[in-house]
Design brief:
By secondary structure, the chain is of the alpha/beta class. It has 14 helices and 20 strands. Strands 8-7-16-17-18-15-19 form a 7-stranded mixed beta sheet. A 5-stranded parallel beta sheet has the order 10-2-1-14-20, with helices on one face. A 3-stranded antiparallel beta sheet has the order 5-9-6. Bound molecules: flavin-adenine dinucleotide (FAD).
Length: 480
């Protein structure tokens, strides 16, 4: 069966990969001239890469890790020490670590928390532990129910001291969804804690050894095209063309550079576009359906990725760092963490600026100036004295609508991959799956969409249609 997929982000490519495995023929149509969507990256005139986002892979990403194995590229994941490292704003230039010992979960997580005395007092740790008990005892159904609260509200309800939020959870909320604890849904943080602490290596982090476009998306494209599928760049979908019964008749592709528009037909159609452009493109008859109306409840959150090249090394730390800066979220010296970006003499910092609402409209120069002021606090010794570190060049990548903003009450708006339209499916990190809006969520959603298509009884089945295994945690797994 021919399946046309709009969007070559991780969800669209994952969907195509698993459709190929199930014996179908996917055609992926990507609007831009670059693969990867929110993991897209570009090479500048000097040959240096810059990316849409600083991307971290976790041990608790079973579908992503399975995909790496299936593509034979596991060696491209550069696993770091099992630690979480935070800057200490009250002691500029110093770090506080949560080190996970080589013990089974959740003991290693408990030991990591108990072993850190810089950020939380013993009383605060005990109050946090007690507060988390309902989530531990009542499992996933409790976690889903907590979507009515923001994380700040949930912490207050559980009597967890405000300092715990300030010390630990501002950094965590910003890393998870680019927003603060008073905005993020409690379900998101509880889900992450659940995934990270339940498995021994759940919170262990890896960096890809190069740009995601080249080192992850391209192998997916090779896998798809070598087996008869197709991936086209510069192929923007302009419109979903409908039959009189409301099903899809074709994708209308916008002709570029003066070329005529083109109608592309297939047996099945998939949107792997983000939710914001999808909402704009919904045909009028579909807008009457409750399934599509619910999408109005989802909207992408702004975020900015800043890359700064310096004339010297600022740090030797080969890991992700939680800045705990009001302006920034996480950052890393990519000249240490990523093989393809290695430089023994100079640092290339990649920093996520979030929340970015107030910054997304500002110029790159303003954003870089504000980031440099923050760096003076994060690296006090390098930006003072007679010979301060010099910024050699920068790139700023703004994403005005990135992953959906996971404020309280959003879970109910996340759609299933199967739609009410017989030959039209959705995929993407925002669709309903158990792993938040993330690379893991995108890959899983692609697999779920492929499964739903392959399981369609009215469609011809190929011999491999059942050979798709998904790693979703069981419905009632205990949390944290
Ligand atoms: C700054 C930043 C940091 C992040 N850090 C992490 C991290 O550390 N770990 C993690 O797991 N996740 C992280 N994420 C989230 C992760 O990148 C996303 O969840 C994931 O990549 C989304 O994949 P997707 O395929 O669902 O959507 P997208 O990647 O958005 O793909 C959608 C594709 O559809 C295409 N498209 C849109 N309109 C059309 C059209 N009309 N016709 C054809 N194609 C179209 C787009 O160009 C795009 O390629 C981060 C994201 C950002 C922005």
């Amino acid at each position: 069966m021919r399946v046309a997929i709009a969007g070559a982000g991780l969800a669209g490519l994952s969907c195509a990969k698993y459709l190929i495995d199930a014996g179908h023929i996917p055609m992926v149509l990507e609007r831009r001239d670059v693969l990867g969507g929110k993991v897209a990256a570009w090479k500048d005139a000097d040959g240096d890469w810059y990316e849409t986002g600083l991307h971290i892979f976790f041990g608790a990403y079973p579908n992503m890790l399975q995909l790496f194995q299936e593509l034979g590229i596991e060696d491209r994941l550069q696993w770091k020490e099992h630690s979480m490292i935070f800057n200490q704003p009250d002691h500029p230039g110093t770090y506080s670590r949560f080190d996970f010992p080589d013990l089974p979960a959740p003991i290693n997580g408990i030991m990591a928390i108990l072993g850190n005395n810089d950020m939380l007092t013993w009383t605060e740790k005990i109050r946090l532990g007690i507060g988390l008990i309902p989530a531990i005892l009542q499992g996933q159904s409790y976690v889903e129910e907590m979507d009515k609260y923001s994380w700040s509200e949930w912490l207050q309800k559980q009597n967890i001291p405000p300092r715990v939020e300030k010390e630990v959870f501002i950094a965590m909320s910003k890393a998870l969804n680019f927003i603060n604890p008073d905005e993020i849904s409690a379900t998101i943080v509880l889900t992450a804690l659940n995934r990270f602490l339940q498995e021994k290596n759940g919170s262990k982090m890896a960096f890809l050894d190069g740009s995601p476009t080249e080192r992850l998306c391209q192998p997916m494209v090779d896998y798809i095209t070598e087996r008869g599928g197709e991936v086209r760049l510069n192929a923007p979908i302009k419109e979903f063309l409908l039959n009189s019964d409301g099903t899809v008749r074709g994708f209308l592709l916008r002709g570029l550079n003066g070329a005529a528009d083109e109608v592309l037909t297939a047996d099945i159609y998939v949107s792997a576009m983000p939710v914001d452009p999808l909402k704009v493109m919904l045909p009028a008859p579909w807008r009457q359906l409750a399934y599509f109306q619910k999408l109005d409840g989802l909207e992408g959150v702004p975020v900015i990725n800043v890359h700064l090249w310096f004339d010297r090394k600022l740090t030797d730390i080969d890991h992700l760092l939680f800045s705990r800066s009001p302006l920034l979220s996480v950052y890393a010296d990519m000249s240490n963490t990523c093989r393809a970006y290695t430089n023994p003499n100079r640092s290339m910092l990649e920093l996520v600026l979030a929340p970015a609402e107030d910054w997304i409209g500002k110029s790159d120069a303003e954003i870089v100036a504000a980031t440099m002021s923050e760096l003076e606090k994060l690296f006090p010794t390098h930006f003072s004295g007679a010979e301060p570190a010099q910024l050699l060049k920068y790139h700023v990548v703004k994403t005005p609508r990135s992953v959906y903003k996971a404020t309280p009450g959003r879970q109910q708006y996340r759609p299933a991959q199967k739609t009410p339209i017989a030959n039209f499916y959705l995929t993407g990190d925002y669709t309903m799956q158990r792993y938040l809006a993330s690379m893991e969520g995108a890959v899983l959603s692609g697999k779920l969409t492929a499964q739903a298509i392959a399981a369609e009884p009215s469609l011809p089945m190929d011999e491999a249609t059942v050979n798709l295994t998904t790693s979703q945690p069981a419905a009632n797994v205990a949390t944290v």
